[in-house]
Model the fold of this input.
Amino acid sequence: MPLAICRRHAPELLIAVFGLTIIVAVSGIAGGEAGSFFFAALDVAPFVILAMLIYLAAGRHPAFRWVAVLWLFLLLAGIAAATAGFGLMAILPAGELDPESVDLALAAEAALLLLGVIGAALASLVGFSRRFRVRLARYLPFDPDSLLHSAALVVILALTLIPPVPLLVTLIPPYLSPQFIELLTESGDLLVDTVTLNAYTLFWTIVASFFIAGACVRKTPKKALERLGLVRPRGREVGFAIVAALALVAAFHFIDPALAGLIGLLGLPVTDAEAVNLLFLGTLTIPGIIMASVAAGFGEEVSIRGLLQPRFGIILPALLFASLHAFQYSWDGLISVFLAGIAFAYIRRYSNTTTSAITHTIYDLVLFAALMVGIAI
Done:
């Protein structure tokens, strides 16, 4: 009986669990490793709550539909606010601002950033247009009349359009700005061991993808794993993943410099490799690069290629994948990430998510290992 009740009320229970997780993370009640564990959930908890509200709208009461839409707007506002915050950090000088000595050019750039973020957020709302969804559904295998798919489309558009705005306005990825690097240096975060943080992030990403896919709500856990494309890998799939990863490393050894040269010819700044290396400084230990590679490989593949690709095709998730790196790479890096995402997408399409995740993991592992020993690839 308790198990049957849990299954029937799984959406409500998950909303309570992930809502409590957000409260604990934001309030700072839990400190130390426990605090880091809950903080890592902030990236995914709002999306799980959104999915559960939509499931409730379909199975309980239509009023949940309006609650879900309201939560979606709050989610978009949060994405926009976070992006604007990091963008302003890259623009405004460190320390307190003196209103009497405000640089008009600086103020204009900050205003342009805020307008750009708002514009991108508003543009993502085109996903609410049924006409737009029907046209898109001619090419993509999603249901234009499904609230779940419609909300997912709005979120995908928001996460694709909003994060690149600071780079578009300032020409500097927020994480590579002098202000951000200085902040990390002074706080000591550049040298922090990231093994456990990456492990927590991977855990929450997998769990969130599992429940958003409908596990224990609309599907059995086994069906949810199948929906995500997660299978036990066979020997030939592992062998293919290793060969594919090494082939991608070799290919991007030539592609990345070519992209940097092309972006440079267009008069745009290229990714500052030294600043990127500083960001990963705390990762450059053997346990660190292994955990970072597994977290990125399996976390990104399960959430993007496993969860989104079956409904939204190859291009949209690949654009989202690239956009999520817009805080740390310039345009050459984003194009490189997009092309890598396309490669992983085709591996997912013609095999499964497990194979694409292994490929992604080995690809990152080789790059991190080369970075650790000081080899430029």
About this structure: The chain is about 75% helix and 0% strand. The mean pLDDT is 90.
